Amino acid sequence: MAATETSFATLMQLELVKKRDLTAQGVSILQALAHGLQPATPEAAAEAAHQLDRLCPPLEDSDQASDYLWGLWEIIMAIAGSPDVESEVHERLVEILRQLKQHARGELGFSLDPTSTGAEFTQVSAQIWRNISLFGARYLAERLLGAYLELAYTLRDALEQDLDKLPDVGIAECRIQVACGWIQYAAKPLLRWAWENMDSTNGSFYCGPSAVCLERWRFWLGRFDELANEDSGLGEETRKAASEAAETMRAVEKLVDDALS
Description:
2 domains
């Protein structure tokens, strides 16, 4: 079986993709994305991006073009968010989108936080949110998507709120783990944002300037340190993730300090 056919079959088996009722156009989109997965080369990603661009209707037909872009983004989110997706697939999607950005057909956002939308919070919805957030963080790190507000809201909800008031400790741990995932991949753009001092609404625990600034950055770092302590009441996995997030933030700070000194 050809590599593209194998990749297409793999994508079709992903949990959130299987749930979609794909149109003929959706199948073509999935086939193009599969082309960029194997072999894992820039050339394959470039060809996948070229195929996706060819599938897009003319921008003069705004309704069809908009429908196509939304359909493309929904399929990408279904792949990236599937609980059974592998990290390597995220990496290949980012490479395809890096190539696709050169065609500049449009930009769409996302928000699938199951802890604040009123949707039922389950292990599956939590895993989907974690996967989507990790994908968004990778995308932001490559400067392909301006998901800064998603990042700021995630850190605010995880680090600036009284997590003891949440109805389920699993929600608190999920928020913290997702925040740690953003830091894992997107600490550098976050620190750049802090230097630029852009506005963002505060959580109740944070009393500093209403902006993503260095003071807020250091508050978040301190909160990760607090959450990493055994007396935080969090599980071992979450405490470890918080500790690693704090270490990542310190490492990024040092890189910036060394570059400026």
